[in-house]
Fold this sequence. Notes:
29% of the residues lie in helices and 20% in strands. The chain is α+β, with helices and mostly antiparallel strands.
Amino acid sequence: MVPLVAPELTGPRTTRDEVASFATALWEPVRQRLDGGQAHLGGTGAHFDDVAAGLEGFARPLWGLMPLVAGGADIDLDPVLAGLASGSDPASPGYWGLAGDRDQRLVEMAALGLGLAMVPERLWDPLPPQARDHLADWLARINAVDCNDNNWLFFRVLVNLGLGRVGSPLQDAGATAAALDRLESFYLGDGWYADGPSGRCDHYVPWAFHFYGLIYARLAGETDPGRAQRFRERAAVAATDLAHWYDDDGATLPYGRSLTYRFAAAAFWGALAFADVEALPWPQVRGLYTRQLEWWRGRDVDDRGVLPIGYGYPNQLMAETYNSPGSPYWAAKAFLPLAVGDEHPFWASTPAPAPREPVRTQQRPLLVLCDDRAGEHVFALAGGQDGDQFRHGPEKYDKLAYSTVFGVSVPSSGNGLAEQAADSTLVLSEDGLHWRGRRAPLESRVGDGMVWTRWQPWPDVEIETWLWPQLPWHVRVHRIRTDRALHTAEGGWALDRTGDTVATTVGARTATAGEASASYPAGFSGLRDLAGGRAGEVVRAAPNTNLLVPRTVVPMLRGTLEPGTHVLACAVLGSRRPDPAAWQEPVTAVAPASRTVPAPPREVLA
Protein backbone atom coordinates (compact mmCIF):
# COMPACT_ATOMS: atom_id res chain seq x y z
CA MET A 1 0.00 0.00 0.00
CA VAL A 2 1.28 3.46 -0.89
CA PRO A 3 1.70 5.56 2.29
CA LEU A 4 -0.31 8.72 2.53
CA VAL A 5 1.54 12.01 2.51
CA ALA A 6 1.15 14.01 5.73
CA PRO A 7 -1.68 16.57 5.46
CA GLU A 8 0.78 19.30 6.48
CA LEU A 9 2.64 18.67 3.23
CA THR A 10 -0.41 19.07 1.05
CA GLY A 11 -2.40 21.64 3.04
CA PRO A 12 -2.62 25.39 2.40
CA ARG A 13 0.43 27.65 2.73
CA THR A 14 -1.28 30.97 3.20
CA THR A 15 -0.72 32.06 6.81
CA ARG A 16 2.55 32.12 8.71
CA ASP A 17 1.38 29.17 10.83
CA GLU A 18 0.55 27.17 7.70
CA VAL A 19 3.93 27.90 6.14
CA ALA A 20 5.63 26.94 9.41
CA SER A 21 3.63 23.71 9.52
CA PHE A 22 4.72 22.92 5.97
CA ALA A 23 8.38 23.59 6.83
CA THR A 24 8.16 21.33 9.86
CA ALA A 25 6.41 18.55 7.96
CA LEU A 26 8.93 18.79 5.11
CA TRP A 27 11.75 18.24 7.59
CA GLU A 28 10.21 15.14 9.15
CA PRO A 29 10.82 12.68 6.25
CA VAL A 30 14.40 13.93 6.05
CA ARG A 31 14.89 13.50 9.81
CA GLN A 32 13.65 9.92 9.52
CA ARG A 33 16.32 9.20 6.93
CA LEU A 34 19.25 10.76 8.78
CA ASP A 35 22.40 8.74 9.30
CA GLY A 36 24.51 11.04 11.41
CA GLY A 37 25.33 14.06 9.27
CA GLN A 38 23.91 12.58 6.08
CA ALA A 39 20.42 12.09 4.73
CA HIS A 40 19.94 9.43 2.08
CA LEU A 41 16.88 10.47 0.09
CA GLY A 42 17.19 8.43 -3.09
CA GLY A 43 19.38 6.24 -5.24
CA THR A 44 20.36 8.52 -8.12
CA GLY A 45 23.77 10.12 -8.52
CA ALA A 46 25.32 13.49 -9.25
CA HIS A 47 28.76 14.50 -10.51
CA PHE A 48 30.02 14.64 -6.89
CA ASP A 49 30.52 11.75 -4.47
CA ASP A 50 27.84 10.05 -2.38
CA VAL A 51 29.16 11.46 0.90
CA ALA A 52 28.71 14.99 -0.42
CA ALA A 53 25.24 14.00 -1.64
CA GLY A 54 24.35 12.76 1.85
CA LEU A 55 25.64 16.01 3.32
CA GLU A 56 23.46 17.89 0.84
CA GLY A 57 20.41 16.00 2.03
CA PHE A 58 21.29 16.82 5.65
CA ALA A 59 22.22 20.49 5.19
CA ARG A 60 19.74 21.89 2.69
CA PRO A 61 16.63 21.48 4.84
CA LEU A 62 18.41 23.64 7.42
CA TRP A 63 17.78 26.66 5.19
CA GLY A 64 14.20 26.39 6.41
CA LEU A 65 14.72 24.81 9.81
CA MET A 66 17.03 27.55 11.12
CA PRO A 67 14.63 30.45 10.35
CA LEU A 68 11.84 28.37 11.87
CA VAL A 69 13.85 28.03 15.09
CA ALA A 70 14.87 31.70 14.99
CA GLY A 71 11.18 32.57 14.79
CA GLY A 72 10.49 30.76 18.04
CA ALA A 73 9.44 27.27 16.94
CA ASP A 74 10.16 24.47 19.40
CA ILE A 75 12.08 22.09 17.16
CA ASP A 76 14.13 19.17 18.45
CA LEU A 77 17.61 19.85 17.08
CA ASP A 78 19.33 16.90 18.74
CA PRO A 79 19.54 14.98 15.42
CA VAL A 80 21.10 18.04 13.79
CA LEU A 81 23.60 18.51 16.61
CA ALA A 82 24.54 14.83 16.39
CA GLY A 83 25.01 15.18 12.66
CA LEU A 84 27.21 18.25 13.03
CA ALA A 85 29.39 16.45 15.58
CA SER A 86 29.84 13.26 13.55
CA GLY A 87 30.10 14.89 10.14
CA SER A 88 32.88 17.30 11.10
CA ASP A 89 34.92 14.82 13.15
CA PRO A 90 37.81 13.35 11.10
CA ALA A 91 37.83 10.28 13.33
CA SER A 92 34.13 9.56 12.82
CA PRO A 93 32.91 6.97 10.30
CA GLY A 94 30.37 9.60 9.22
CA TYR A 95 33.00 12.26 8.47
CA TRP A 96 32.03 14.49 5.56
CA GLY A 97 35.60 14.69 4.33
CA LEU A 98 37.91 17.61 3.79
CA ALA A 99 36.61 20.07 1.19
CA GLY A 100 38.74 20.65 -1.90
CA ASP A 101 38.70 23.30 -4.59
CA ARG A 102 35.21 23.93 -6.02
CA ASP A 103 33.88 21.05 -3.92
CA GLN A 104 30.17 20.48 -3.36
CA ARG A 105 30.89 20.52 0.37
CA LEU A 106 31.51 24.26 0.09
CA VAL A 107 27.93 24.77 -1.10
CA GLU A 108 26.42 22.93 1.85
CA MET A 109 28.60 24.80 4.36
CA ALA A 110 26.49 27.91 3.75
CA ALA A 111 23.41 26.53 5.51
CA LEU A 112 25.52 25.67 8.55
CA GLY A 113 27.03 29.15 8.53
CA LEU A 114 23.55 30.66 8.42
CA GLY A 115 22.49 28.52 11.38
CA LEU A 116 25.46 29.61 13.47
CA ALA A 117 24.77 33.24 12.59
CA MET A 118 21.03 33.07 13.33
CA VAL A 119 20.68 30.71 16.30
CA PRO A 120 24.10 30.03 17.85
CA GLU A 121 22.43 29.30 21.17
CA ARG A 122 20.71 26.30 19.57
CA LEU A 123 23.30 25.13 17.04
CA TRP A 124 26.66 25.94 18.67
CA ASP A 125 26.35 26.34 22.40
CA PRO A 126 25.01 22.79 23.04
CA LEU A 127 27.98 21.18 21.24
CA PRO A 128 30.86 19.83 23.38
CA PRO A 129 34.06 21.90 23.06
CA GLN A 130 35.80 19.31 20.87
CA ALA A 131 32.81 19.16 18.51
CA ARG A 132 32.87 22.95 18.23
CA ASP A 133 36.54 22.85 17.29
CA HIS A 134 35.93 20.16 14.69
CA LEU A 135 33.01 22.05 13.16
CA ALA A 136 34.89 25.36 13.04
CA ASP A 137 37.92 23.69 11.46
CA TRP A 138 35.79 21.96 8.87
CA LEU A 139 33.89 25.14 7.96
CA ALA A 140 37.02 27.33 7.86
CA ARG A 141 38.35 25.18 5.04
CA ILE A 142 36.24 27.36 2.72
CA ASN A 143 38.78 30.15 3.22
CA ALA A 144 41.69 27.98 2.09
CA VAL A 145 40.36 26.55 -1.19
CA ASP A 146 38.98 27.93 -4.43
CA CYS A 147 35.26 28.58 -4.78
CA ASN A 148 33.64 28.79 -8.17
CA ASP A 149 33.82 32.35 -9.43
CA ASN A 150 30.11 33.05 -9.17
CA ASN A 151 27.39 33.02 -6.50
CA TRP A 152 29.44 30.40 -4.61
CA LEU A 153 31.51 33.25 -3.15
CA PHE A 154 28.49 34.08 -0.99
CA PHE A 155 28.95 30.69 0.73
CA ARG A 156 32.31 31.91 2.02
CA VAL A 157 30.61 35.07 3.27
CA LEU A 158 27.90 33.16 5.14
CA VAL A 159 30.34 30.73 6.71
CA ASN A 160 32.47 33.59 8.03
CA LEU A 161 29.37 35.34 9.33
CA GLY A 162 28.57 32.21 11.32
CA LEU A 163 32.12 31.74 12.58
CA GLY A 164 32.23 35.38 13.60
CA ARG A 165 28.93 35.15 15.46
CA VAL A 166 30.22 32.29 17.63
CA GLY A 167 33.55 34.03 18.26
CA SER A 168 35.71 31.61 16.34
CA PRO A 169 39.25 32.88 15.63
CA LEU A 170 39.02 31.06 12.29
CA GLN A 171 36.73 33.74 10.87
CA ASP A 172 38.56 35.41 7.97
CA ALA A 173 37.44 39.02 7.53
CA GLY A 174 39.82 39.51 4.61
CA ALA A 175 38.43 36.53 2.71
CA THR A 176 34.91 37.82 3.35
CA ALA A 177 35.71 41.30 2.04
CA ALA A 178 37.44 39.95 -1.06
CA ALA A 179 34.51 37.66 -1.81
CA LEU A 180 32.01 40.49 -1.41
CA ASP A 181 34.05 42.80 -3.64
CA ARG A 182 34.15 40.15 -6.35
CA LEU A 183 30.43 39.48 -6.01
CA GLU A 184 29.65 43.16 -6.40
CA SER A 185 31.69 43.23 -9.60
CA PHE A 186 29.04 40.95 -11.13
CA TYR A 187 26.35 43.61 -10.72
CA LEU A 188 25.06 44.67 -14.14
CA GLY A 189 22.60 47.36 -13.15
CA ASP A 190 18.80 47.57 -13.14
CA GLY A 191 18.73 45.19 -10.16
CA TRP A 192 20.38 42.32 -12.04
CA TYR A 193 23.56 40.37 -11.36
CA ALA A 194 25.39 38.07 -13.74
CA ASP A 195 26.13 34.70 -12.19
CA GLY A 196 29.86 35.09 -12.64
CA PRO A 197 31.90 36.01 -15.73
CA SER A 198 29.49 34.06 -17.97
CA GLY A 199 27.03 36.94 -17.80
CA ARG A 200 23.98 34.67 -17.38
CA CYS A 201 20.79 36.20 -15.95
CA ASP A 202 17.90 33.91 -15.12
CA HIS A 203 15.37 32.94 -12.45
CA TYR A 204 18.29 31.77 -10.26
CA VAL A 205 19.70 35.27 -9.71
CA PRO A 206 17.05 36.66 -7.31
CA TRP A 207 17.07 33.74 -4.90
CA ALA A 208 20.85 33.46 -5.02
CA PHE A 209 22.52 36.85 -5.28
CA HIS A 210 19.73 38.95 -3.79
CA PHE A 211 18.76 36.30 -1.25
CA TYR A 212 22.27 36.07 0.19
CA GLY A 213 22.80 39.79 -0.12
CA LEU A 214 19.67 40.50 1.90
CA ILE A 215 20.75 38.03 4.58
CA TYR A 216 24.08 39.87 4.73
CA ALA A 217 22.32 43.23 4.93
CA ARG A 218 20.28 42.04 7.92
CA LEU A 219 23.10 40.26 9.78
CA ALA A 220 26.04 42.55 8.96
CA GLY A 221 24.28 45.86 8.36
CA GLU A 222 25.78 47.54 11.41
CA THR A 223 29.39 46.62 10.62
CA ASP A 224 29.18 47.11 6.82
CA PRO A 225 26.39 49.66 6.36
CA GLY A 226 27.38 50.89 2.92
CA ARG A 227 27.40 47.48 1.32
CA ALA A 228 24.26 46.46 3.17
CA GLN A 229 22.48 49.49 1.79
CA ARG A 230 23.57 48.66 -1.76
CA PHE A 231 22.26 45.13 -1.39
CA ARG A 232 18.93 46.45 -0.16
CA GLU A 233 18.62 49.03 -2.94
CA ARG A 234 19.50 46.56 -5.69
CA ALA A 235 16.95 44.05 -4.42
CA ALA A 236 14.29 46.76 -4.39
CA VAL A 237 15.04 47.61 -8.02
CA ALA A 238 15.06 43.93 -9.02
CA ALA A 239 11.62 43.44 -7.50
CA THR A 240 10.09 45.80 -10.06
CA ASP A 241 11.20 43.45 -12.85
CA LEU A 242 10.71 40.14 -11.07
CA ALA A 243 7.10 40.86 -10.14
CA HIS A 244 6.30 40.41 -13.84
CA TRP A 245 7.68 36.86 -13.94
CA TYR A 246 4.55 35.47 -12.20
CA ASP A 247 1.03 34.85 -13.41
CA ASP A 248 -2.14 35.27 -11.36
CA ASP A 249 -1.96 31.68 -10.05
CA GLY A 250 1.53 32.18 -8.64
CA ALA A 251 3.41 30.19 -11.31
CA THR A 252 6.77 31.69 -12.20
CA LEU A 253 8.58 31.70 -15.51
CA PRO A 254 10.70 28.53 -15.85
CA TYR A 255 13.74 30.10 -17.49
CA GLY A 256 17.29 28.92 -16.92
CA ARG A 257 19.03 26.25 -14.89
CA SER A 258 18.32 24.73 -11.47
CA LEU A 259 14.58 24.47 -11.92
CA THR A 260 14.39 21.43 -9.66
CA TYR A 261 14.66 23.77 -6.67
CA ARG A 262 10.96 24.46 -7.16
CA PHE A 263 9.54 27.03 -4.73
CA ALA A 264 12.98 28.46 -3.99
CA ALA A 265 11.70 31.20 -6.31
CA ALA A 266 9.60 32.44 -3.37
CA ALA A 267 12.81 32.95 -1.36
CA PHE A 268 13.46 36.35 -2.92
CA TRP A 269 10.14 37.72 -1.68
CA GLY A 270 10.67 36.20 1.75
CA ALA A 271 14.17 37.65 1.96
CA LEU A 272 12.72 41.13 1.46
CA ALA A 273 10.74 40.59 4.65
CA PHE A 274 13.78 39.21 6.51
CA ALA A 275 15.81 42.32 5.60
CA ASP A 276 12.78 44.62 6.02
CA VAL A 277 12.95 45.96 2.46
CA GLU A 278 9.55 47.14 1.22
CA ALA A 279 10.49 46.88 -2.46
CA LEU A 280 6.80 46.88 -3.40
CA PRO A 281 3.87 47.47 -1.06
CA TRP A 282 3.91 44.66 1.51
CA PRO A 283 0.55 43.23 0.37
CA GLN A 284 2.00 42.76 -3.13
CA VAL A 285 5.20 41.17 -1.79
CA ARG A 286 3.14 38.88 0.41
CA GLY A 287 0.89 37.99 -2.52
CA LEU A 288 3.82 37.05 -4.76
CA TYR A 289 5.28 34.90 -1.98
CA THR A 290 2.04 33.20 -0.95
CA ARG A 291 0.78 32.47 -4.46
CA GLN A 292 4.12 30.92 -5.42
CA LEU A 293 3.97 28.51 -2.45
CA GLU A 294 0.31 27.75 -3.14
CA TRP A 295 1.00 27.01 -6.82
CA TRP A 296 3.37 24.25 -5.76
CA ARG A 297 0.85 22.56 -3.47
CA GLY A 298 0.30 19.06 -4.81
CA ARG A 299 3.23 19.33 -7.21
CA ASP A 300 6.11 19.17 -4.78
CA VAL A 301 6.42 16.02 -2.64
CA ASP A 302 6.29 12.34 -3.57
CA ASP A 303 4.43 9.61 -1.66
CA ARG A 304 7.28 9.45 0.89
CA GLY A 305 6.87 13.14 1.65
CA VAL A 306 10.25 13.77 -0.03
CA LEU A 307 10.95 16.43 -2.65
CA PRO A 308 11.92 14.48 -5.79
CA ILE A 309 14.13 15.70 -8.61
CA GLY A 310 11.92 17.31 -11.25
CA TYR A 311 9.80 20.40 -11.70
CA GLY A 312 6.06 19.90 -12.18
CA TYR A 313 6.46 16.15 -11.53
CA PRO A 314 9.35 13.73 -10.78
CA ASN A 315 11.65 13.94 -13.79
CA GLN A 316 15.33 13.08 -14.10
CA LEU A 317 15.44 14.12 -17.74
CA MET A 318 15.45 17.84 -17.00
CA ALA A 319 17.92 17.62 -14.09
CA GLU A 320 21.40 19.12 -13.96
CA THR A 321 24.48 16.96 -13.48
CA TYR A 322 24.81 18.49 -10.01
CA ASN A 323 21.36 17.39 -8.84
CA SER A 324 21.51 14.63 -6.23
CA PRO A 325 18.44 13.32 -4.33
CA GLY A 326 18.96 16.04 -1.69
CA SER A 327 19.32 18.90 -4.17
CA PRO A 328 15.63 19.93 -4.32
CA TYR A 329 15.75 20.95 -0.66
CA TRP A 330 17.22 24.27 -1.59
CA ALA A 331 13.54 25.05 -1.93
CA ALA A 332 13.68 25.43 1.86
CA LYS A 333 15.19 28.88 1.30
CA ALA A 334 11.59 30.00 0.87
CA PHE A 335 11.11 29.63 4.63
CA LEU A 336 13.47 32.50 5.55
CA PRO A 337 10.63 34.90 6.54
CA LEU A 338 9.65 32.49 9.31
CA ALA A 339 12.47 34.19 11.23
CA VAL A 340 10.25 37.29 11.55
CA GLY A 341 7.10 37.31 13.64
CA ASP A 342 3.41 37.65 12.87
CA GLU A 343 3.56 41.35 13.65
CA HIS A 344 5.82 42.08 10.68
CA PRO A 345 3.85 43.85 7.92
CA PHE A 346 4.84 41.06 5.52
CA TRP A 347 2.82 38.53 7.52
CA ALA A 348 0.23 41.05 8.72
CA SER A 349 -0.66 42.05 5.14
CA THR A 350 -3.49 40.59 3.11
CA PRO A 351 -2.00 39.19 -0.14
CA ALA A 352 -2.66 41.54 -3.04
CA PRO A 353 -2.31 41.18 -6.83
CA ALA A 354 1.06 41.95 -8.37
CA PRO A 355 1.62 44.96 -10.63
CA ARG A 356 0.86 44.26 -14.28
CA GLU A 357 2.10 45.53 -17.65
CA PRO A 358 1.10 44.01 -20.99
CA VAL A 359 4.70 44.22 -22.27
CA ARG A 360 7.84 44.89 -20.26
CA THR A 361 11.30 44.86 -21.82
CA GLN A 362 14.01 43.60 -19.46
CA GLN A 363 17.40 44.40 -20.91
CA ARG A 364 19.68 42.51 -18.53
CA PRO A 365 18.20 39.00 -18.94
CA LEU A 366 17.46 39.77 -22.63
CA LEU A 367 13.73 39.12 -22.25
CA VAL A 368 10.47 40.76 -23.24
CA LEU A 369 7.88 39.83 -20.59
CA CYS A 370 4.33 39.57 -21.90
CA ASP A 371 1.21 39.47 -19.73
CA ASP A 372 -1.44 37.77 -21.86
CA ARG A 373 -4.63 38.42 -19.94
CA ALA A 374 -6.76 36.74 -22.63
CA GLY A 375 -4.74 33.52 -22.58
CA GLU A 376 -4.21 33.78 -18.83
CA HIS A 377 -0.48 33.22 -18.85
CA VAL A 378 2.73 35.17 -18.63
CA PHE A 379 5.33 34.44 -21.27
CA ALA A 380 8.74 35.75 -22.21
CA LEU A 381 10.33 36.22 -25.61
CA ALA A 382 14.01 35.43 -25.17
CA GLY A 383 17.19 36.78 -26.68
CA GLY A 384 19.08 33.70 -25.56
CA GLN A 385 22.19 33.20 -23.43
CA ASP A 386 25.12 30.82 -23.31
CA GLY A 387 23.94 27.87 -21.23
CA ASP A 388 26.09 25.21 -22.89
CA GLN A 389 27.79 24.14 -19.67
CA PHE A 390 24.47 22.85 -18.32
CA ARG A 391 22.49 19.81 -19.34
CA HIS A 392 19.94 20.89 -21.94
CA GLY A 393 21.35 24.41 -21.63
CA PRO A 394 20.15 25.53 -25.09
CA GLU A 395 16.60 24.49 -24.21
CA LYS A 396 16.71 26.24 -20.83
CA TYR A 397 18.18 29.49 -22.20
CA ASP A 398 17.87 29.67 -25.98
CA LYS A 399 14.35 28.71 -27.01
CA LEU A 400 12.36 31.56 -28.46
CA ALA A 401 9.67 31.73 -25.77
CA TYR A 402 8.91 30.51 -22.23
CA SER A 403 5.55 30.38 -20.45
CA THR A 404 4.21 30.04 -16.92
CA VAL A 405 1.44 27.75 -18.23
CA PHE A 406 3.09 25.85 -21.10
CA GLY A 407 6.56 25.71 -19.62
CA VAL A 408 9.37 24.52 -21.86
CA SER A 409 10.58 21.10 -23.04
CA VAL A 410 13.96 19.37 -23.22
CA PRO A 411 14.93 16.63 -25.68
CA SER A 412 15.02 12.96 -24.72
CA SER A 413 17.36 12.08 -27.60
CA GLY A 414 18.73 13.64 -30.76
CA ASN A 415 16.60 11.64 -33.19
CA GLY A 416 13.36 12.95 -34.67
CA LEU A 417 11.03 15.79 -33.78
CA ALA A 418 9.10 13.82 -31.17
CA GLU A 419 12.28 13.10 -29.22
CA GLN A 420 13.58 16.61 -29.87
CA ALA A 421 10.42 18.09 -28.30
CA ALA A 422 10.97 21.27 -30.30
CA ASP A 423 8.39 23.52 -28.67
CA SER A 424 8.77 27.30 -28.86
CA THR A 425 11.72 27.19 -31.20
CA LEU A 426 12.94 26.90 -34.79
CA VAL A 427 15.04 23.81 -35.53
CA LEU A 428 16.84 22.84 -38.72
CA SER A 429 18.16 19.58 -40.12
CA GLU A 430 20.13 18.26 -43.09
CA ASP A 431 18.60 14.77 -42.98
CA GLY A 432 15.19 15.34 -41.36
CA LEU A 433 16.25 13.26 -38.36
CA HIS A 434 18.93 15.21 -36.46
CA TRP A 435 17.94 18.77 -35.59
CA ARG A 436 19.72 21.93 -34.44
CA GLY A 437 18.16 24.95 -32.80
CA ARG A 438 19.39 28.26 -31.50
CA ARG A 439 22.21 28.01 -28.95
CA ALA A 440 24.54 30.67 -27.55
CA PRO A 441 23.57 33.37 -30.08
CA LEU A 442 26.38 35.37 -31.67
CA GLU A 443 24.53 38.60 -30.96
CA SER A 444 21.34 39.58 -29.13
CA ARG A 445 19.48 42.84 -28.71
CA VAL A 446 16.32 43.63 -26.80
CA GLY A 447 14.49 46.93 -26.88
CA ASP A 448 11.10 48.59 -27.18
CA GLY A 449 9.22 45.31 -26.88
CA MET A 450 11.23 43.47 -29.53
CA VAL A 451 13.94 40.79 -29.53
CA TRP A 452 16.56 40.34 -32.25
CA THR A 453 19.27 37.67 -32.37
CA ARG A 454 21.85 36.43 -34.84
CA TRP A 455 22.86 32.80 -34.65
CA GLN A 456 24.61 30.07 -36.63
CA PRO A 457 23.56 26.42 -36.41
CA TRP A 458 26.32 25.65 -38.98
CA PRO A 459 29.23 27.84 -40.10
CA ASP A 460 27.61 28.39 -43.50
CA VAL A 461 24.09 29.04 -42.14
CA GLU A 462 23.30 32.37 -40.52
CA ILE A 463 19.91 33.25 -39.08
CA GLU A 464 18.49 36.53 -37.87
CA THR A 465 15.43 36.13 -35.65
CA TRP A 466 12.94 38.81 -34.62
CA LEU A 467 10.35 38.27 -31.89
CA TRP A 468 7.63 40.59 -30.65
CA PRO A 469 4.25 40.35 -28.91
CA GLN A 470 0.95 41.10 -30.61
CA LEU A 471 -1.11 40.02 -27.66
CA PRO A 472 -2.57 37.50 -27.30
CA TRP A 473 -0.24 36.34 -30.10
CA HIS A 474 3.48 36.67 -30.55
CA VAL A 475 5.19 36.98 -33.91
CA ARG A 476 8.41 35.32 -35.06
CA VAL A 477 10.38 36.27 -38.17
CA HIS A 478 13.55 34.55 -39.38
CA ARG A 479 15.87 35.60 -42.21
CA ILE A 480 17.93 32.55 -43.15
CA ARG A 481 21.03 32.64 -45.34
CA THR A 482 22.16 29.10 -46.10
CA ASP A 483 24.70 27.41 -48.35
CA ARG A 484 23.09 24.02 -47.85
CA ALA A 485 19.65 22.50 -48.31
CA LEU A 486 17.75 22.25 -45.05
CA HIS A 487 14.60 20.90 -43.44
CA THR A 488 12.91 23.33 -41.03
CA ALA A 489 10.44 22.83 -38.19
CA GLU A 490 9.04 25.53 -35.94
CA GLY A 491 7.12 24.62 -32.80
CA GLY A 492 4.39 26.44 -30.91
CA TRP A 493 3.62 25.97 -27.22
CA ALA A 494 3.72 22.42 -25.82
CA LEU A 495 0.17 21.56 -24.73
CA ASP A 496 -0.80 19.10 -22.00
CA ARG A 497 -2.46 16.05 -23.57
CA THR A 498 -3.24 14.21 -20.32
CA GLY A 499 -5.75 11.42 -20.97
CA ASP A 500 -4.87 11.19 -24.65
CA THR A 501 -3.68 7.70 -25.61
CA VAL A 502 -3.25 5.73 -28.81
CA ALA A 503 -6.73 4.28 -28.30
CA THR A 504 -8.47 7.34 -26.87
CA THR A 505 -8.32 10.96 -27.97
CA VAL A 506 -9.55 13.59 -25.54
CA GLY A 507 -8.44 16.56 -27.63
CA ALA A 508 -8.55 17.82 -31.20
CA ARG A 509 -5.57 18.30 -33.51
CA THR A 510 -5.67 20.19 -36.80
CA ALA A 511 -2.89 20.47 -39.38
CA THR A 512 -3.31 22.09 -42.80
CA ALA A 513 -1.23 24.08 -45.23
CA GLY A 514 0.01 27.09 -43.29
CA GLU A 515 -1.25 26.30 -39.80
CA ALA A 516 -1.35 23.76 -36.99
CA SER A 517 -3.27 23.70 -33.73
CA ALA A 518 -4.25 21.50 -30.80
CA SER A 519 -7.17 21.88 -28.41
CA TYR A 520 -7.38 19.88 -25.17
CA PRO A 521 -9.08 20.31 -21.80
CA ALA A 522 -5.86 21.99 -20.59
CA GLY A 523 -6.07 24.70 -23.25
CA PHE A 524 -5.04 25.59 -26.77
CA SER A 525 -1.83 25.88 -28.78
CA GLY A 526 -1.55 26.95 -32.39
CA LEU A 527 0.64 28.73 -34.92
CA ARG A 528 -0.04 30.23 -38.31
CA ASP A 529 2.38 30.73 -41.19
CA LEU A 530 2.62 34.38 -42.29
CA ALA A 531 5.07 33.98 -45.18
CA GLY A 532 3.69 30.89 -46.92
CA GLY A 533 5.35 27.68 -48.00
CA ARG A 534 5.11 25.62 -44.82
CA ALA A 535 2.76 22.80 -43.87
CA GLY A 536 1.16 22.23 -40.49
CA GLU A 537 1.80 19.18 -38.32
CA VAL A 538 0.98 18.26 -34.72
CA VAL A 539 3.70 16.20 -33.05
CA ARG A 540 3.14 14.00 -30.00
CA ALA A 541 6.29 14.84 -28.05
CA ALA A 542 8.16 12.04 -26.31
CA PRO A 543 6.98 11.55 -22.69
CA ASN A 544 8.62 13.45 -19.84
CA THR A 545 10.18 16.08 -22.08
CA ASN A 546 8.08 18.98 -20.79
CA LEU A 547 8.93 20.44 -17.39
CA LEU A 548 5.33 20.87 -16.24
CA VAL A 549 3.44 17.83 -17.50
CA PRO A 550 4.60 14.38 -18.66
CA ARG A 551 2.72 14.22 -21.99
CA THR A 552 2.34 16.98 -24.56
CA VAL A 553 1.60 17.72 -28.19
CA VAL A 554 3.43 20.43 -30.12
CA PRO A 555 1.84 22.12 -33.18
CA MET A 556 4.52 22.76 -35.82
CA LEU A 557 5.16 24.28 -39.22
CA ARG A 558 7.38 22.18 -41.52
CA GLY A 559 9.23 23.16 -44.67
CA THR A 560 12.37 22.80 -46.77
CA LEU A 561 14.93 25.34 -47.97
CA GLU A 562 17.31 25.33 -50.91
CA PRO A 563 20.62 27.19 -50.67
CA GLY A 564 19.99 30.92 -50.68
CA THR A 565 18.22 33.56 -48.57
CA HIS A 566 14.76 32.91 -47.18
CA VAL A 567 12.30 34.58 -44.82
CA LEU A 568 10.05 32.56 -42.51
CA ALA A 569 7.36 34.14 -40.35
CA CYS A 570 4.59 32.92 -38.10
CA ALA A 571 2.18 34.02 -35.38
CA VAL A 572 1.88 31.86 -32.26
CA LEU A 573 -1.08 31.64 -29.88
CA GLY A 574 -1.54 29.89 -26.56
CA SER A 575 -4.45 29.91 -24.13
CA ARG A 576 -5.82 28.11 -21.11
CA ARG A 577 -9.11 28.07 -23.01
CA PRO A 578 -9.57 25.23 -25.52
CA ASP A 579 -11.33 27.55 -27.98
CA PRO A 580 -9.80 31.06 -27.84
CA ALA A 581 -11.66 33.60 -29.94
CA ALA A 582 -8.39 35.02 -31.29
CA TRP A 583 -7.71 31.86 -33.29
CA GLN A 584 -10.78 32.54 -35.43
CA GLU A 585 -9.55 36.00 -36.37
CA PRO A 586 -6.96 36.91 -39.02
CA VAL A 587 -3.54 38.02 -37.85
CA THR A 588 -0.87 40.01 -39.66
CA ALA A 589 2.60 41.02 -38.52
CA VAL A 590 2.85 44.58 -37.23
CA ALA A 591 6.29 45.23 -35.77
CA PRO A 592 6.78 47.82 -33.02
CA ALA A 593 9.09 50.73 -33.80
CA SER A 594 12.46 50.20 -32.14
CA ARG A 595 15.60 52.31 -32.01
CA THR A 596 17.75 49.51 -30.62
CA VAL A 597 16.72 46.49 -32.71
CA PRO A 598 17.26 46.16 -36.50
CA ALA A 599 14.07 46.36 -38.53
CA PRO A 600 12.57 43.02 -39.60
CA PRO A 601 12.15 42.15 -43.31
CA ARG A 602 9.44 44.32 -44.85
CA GLU A 603 7.96 41.56 -46.99
CA VAL A 604 6.23 39.92 -44.01
CA LEU A 605 4.89 43.09 -42.39
CA ALA A 606 1.40 44.47 -42.80
